[in-house]
Write a structure and sequence with these properties.
The complex is a heterodimer of chains A (about 140) and B (about 400).
Chain A (H helix, E strand, L loop, with lengths): L7 E3 L4 E2 L5 E7 L5 E2 L14 E5 L3 E10 L10 E8 L2 E7 L14 E11 L5 E9 L2
Parallel strand pairs in A: 1-10
Antiparallel strand pairs in A: 2-3, 3-4, 3-5, 6-7, 6-9, 7-8, 9-10
Chain B lengths: L4 E8 L10 H16 L9 E4 L8 H9 L6 E3 L6 H14 L5 E8 L40 H15 L6 H16 L13 H6 L2 E4 L1 E2 L9 E9 H4 L4 H6 L1 E10 L14 H14 L8 E3 L5 H10 L8 H6 L16 H4 L4 H16 L13 E8 L3 E9 L2
Parallel strand pairs in B: 2-3, 2-4, 9-10
Antiparallel strand pairs in B: 1-7, 1-8, 4-7, 5-6, 8-11, 10-11
The chains are: A mainly beta (about 140), B alpha/beta (about 400).
Chain lengths: ~140, ~400
């Protein structure tokens, strides 16, 4: 019997923590459109059958903003980005680099990384994802 | 069924701070002035379409009737984010066009002075136990952890995405700030704008950064304001006075679209496809092209948004928005004046009023009544609005023959 010392839970259900951590989408079986939340029917073709699709962990930063002013409780500054993971667009923060335009540039290659956002009263650790420069 | 529709009367209130007026007061002011502008009364109205986003459940249209005239006509209380005003107008136009009545009133009003960010935020602190909830099974709030939910950040990404798609290699921040410089400059001629102070490029770039590349003056200004319009069928207009006929403005196209599915639209809202579609439909319906436009009021909720809509509204070559802007075309003395009102960045953005106020601006020029900021000889104009989520309204207006 394995003894797991730290129980972990992903920040969102489309983040899979198993090594290597990756994102997973609901993929329409008829047209291939991908969604991160559940859909009653595909927004693109109205098909009702979905399968699970694992996303690549490396991609390209196609847009970003450096948020300096956010709602109370949200630490700033941070870089919010839109990442093209080989044809599937995802959103995420750009992490492990300085939040400025010298270090964050359009078209830069990034890869998925995970980090803890803290443990709850039961000792369960929540794990979030972001994207870091893949130079 | 009525074919041609005209704006008979239209007004906007001063945008800005109206601490002594609630939404009903501002709506009543706008509506009564629009009726007076058209030379008609509530007794002539066959339909009322009303929008007030922040009190959407309050039955704003009926509240308004109680202030200005209860005649038993159908009321449509409409909500479509920042496109609420255009949706109200579109609703009144549809009723007249369908032949249900020959005149209708559309009103949009908002009290937003002092409001901060309108979206985003944790809402609640992290819990003591991680419990998945919501459609993404999130165990904690995601704004700021998985990108941003704020409007300045969202529209910053919309602009930056355009630069990436079209391989822009210049100074993004300065280029976007120059768009804001233009609109703040335009606003100095608009006494109804919330802010009509000239701002230098240095002042704009040196102001508080909200979400790169948008500093505070590059963001739409939250403020109070109302706008209203009376629409009339062509047939009914013929029975009115020559002066009413002379000042009437033809609605050559009235189009409302929602966002069709595109890859990535669940991640970053696609404000482009539905705008392009609305513009295409509007040009076809009106039988005019972008080259025929004398002025355009477009939805510059952020400086970064204005850029992409040059392209979406086909004011420039596809992919050529930066070059188009840098040519000077969109300044008031250029070939294609855009946001001569000062735009949302200076005139202000009282959400539900915006989609009627932009039409008022265009009508004001077509009627030759725009005073110091008159675009001389204007005969055709376009007004565009976007509500995130998304809804897009495009109206093309023409001076009555």
């Amino acid at each position: 019997m394995t003894t797991e010392t730290v129980a972990r839970i992903p920040l969102v259900d489309y983040l899979v923590l198993e090594d290597p951590p990756h994102l997973v989408a609901h993929e329409c079986t008829s047209c291939g459109a991908r969604f991160f939340d559940r859909r009653n029917a595909c927004a693109s073709c109205f098909g009702t059958e979905f399968r699970s699709a694992e996303l690549p962990t490396e991609g390209e930063l196609v847009s970003f903003t450096i948020v300096s002013f956010a709602a109370p409780g949200v630490p700033v500054p941070f870089v919010a980005g839109v990442i093209d993971l080989d044809g599937t667009t995802v959103r995420g923060n750009i992490v492990n680099t300085e939040p400025d335009t010298e270090h964050v540039t359009l078209g830069m290659k990034v890869r998925l990384t995970t980090f803890s956002i803290g443990s709850d009263d039961n000792g369960v650790e929540a794990v979030a994802f972001g994207f870091e420069p893949a130079s | 069924m009525n074919d041609d529709i005209f704006i008979l009367g239209i007004t906007m209130t001063k945008f800005g701070k109206h601490p002594d007026k609630d939404a009903v007061d501002l709506g009543a002011e706008a509506a009564m002035n629009a009726l007076a502008d058209g030379g008609v009364t509530m007794a002539d109205m066959g339909v009322l379409a009303a929008g007030n986003l922040m009190n959407a459940a309050a039955g704003f249209g009926q509240q308004l009737q109680k202030q200005i005239g209860q005649t038993g006509i159908p009321v449509f209380n409409v909500v479509n984010a920042c496109a609420t005003g255009a949706t109200a107008l579109r609703t009144a136009i549809m009723a007249v066009k369908a032949g249900e009545c020959d005149m209708g009133l559309a009103v949009g009003v908002e009290n937003l002075a002092g409001a901060g960010l309108l979206a985003g935020g944790f809402g609640k602190p992290d819990g003591h136990t991680w419990e998945p909830s919501g459609r993404y099974g999130a165990v904690a709030p995601v704004d700021g952890r998985i990108g941003t939910d704020t409007m300045p950040g969202t529209f910053a990404q919309v602009g930056m995405e355009y630069l990436h798609e079209h391989a822009y290699s210049g100074e993004a921040f300065e280029m976007f700030a120059k768009i804001s410089e233009k609109n703040h400059s335009h606003s100095t001629l608009n006494p109804l704008a919330a802010y009509n102070k000239l701002m230098t490029l240095e002042e704009i770039m040196g102001d508080i950064m909200i979400a790169y590349p948008n500093t505070r003056p590059m963001c739409s200004a939250n403020c109070d304001g109302g706008a209203a319009a009376v629409v009339v069928s062509a047939e009914k207009l013929k029975t009115l006075s020559l002066e009413q006929q002379r000042r009437a403005v033809k609605v050559s196209a009235s189009v409302l679209t929602s966002d069709p599915y595109t890859e990535g639209c669940q991640v970053l809202p696609d404000v482009n496809t539905l705008t392009r579609s609305a513009a295409t439909q509007a040009y076809e319906e009106a039988g005019v092209g972008p080259d025929d436009l004398d002025l355009v009021e477009l939805h510059d909720c952020f400086a970064t948004a204005e850029l992409v809509h040059y392209d979406n509204l086909k004011l420039c070559e596809e992919g050529g928005a930066v070059e188009f802007f840098e040519s000077g075309a969109t300044w008031r003395d250029g070939d294609m004046p855009v946001n001569v009102s000062g735009g949302l960045q200076s005139k202000g953005h009282p959400i539900s009023a915006t989609g009627i106020a932009n039409i008022w601006e265009v009508c004001h020029h077509l009627r030759g009544e725009a005073g110091d900021r008159q675009i001389e000889g204007a005969t055709v104009g376009l007004a565009h609005v976007i509500g995130l989520g998304s809804a897009c309204g495009v109206h093309i207006l023409e001076k009555a023959a």
